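Task: encode each sequence below as structure tokens.

Item 1
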Amino acid sequence: MQNVAFILIGLGILVLIGWLARGFFMAAEISLFVRVVVGIVAAAVVMLFGIVIRDRIAQAKKDDFKEVDK
């Protein structure tokens, strides 16, 4: 249940960031090339965060020290 809450929080943050970035991506005075590059960089950063979180969760599940408090 805790993982579902984290997923919902993450999706909510992504939606909020997307809503806030809408003005940047819809602005006509910013060139299309710059908007595409910023979008690609933002997507790459989000993917890297997702990979790091997934690896941390997988590592925590394989941890041999179950009786030691983290």
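Item 2
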Amino acid sequence: MALSYVAIMSQWVAFFPWNLGFRLAGIARVAQVQLLQIFVTLGLAALVNGEAIDLETIAFALAVVVTLMIGRAMPVRR
């Protein structure tokens, strides 16, 4: 039953608002915002699961931020 719920919600119901968000905001911009999900994941892992966040994890998270900043600073030609 749970597998059916996940399959229906993620594959059918969430498909339309997901693609609408891409259409309204632009694929490149939404994809860059998605890169910030790492911080939500790290925060929830620490708070909910009590996982330790080590220096290597922080370094990779900062590498994602630097990549995001470089990508946002580059000019876009249309």
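Check on item 2: The mean pLDDT is 85. The first helix runs from residue 2 to 13.
End of task.
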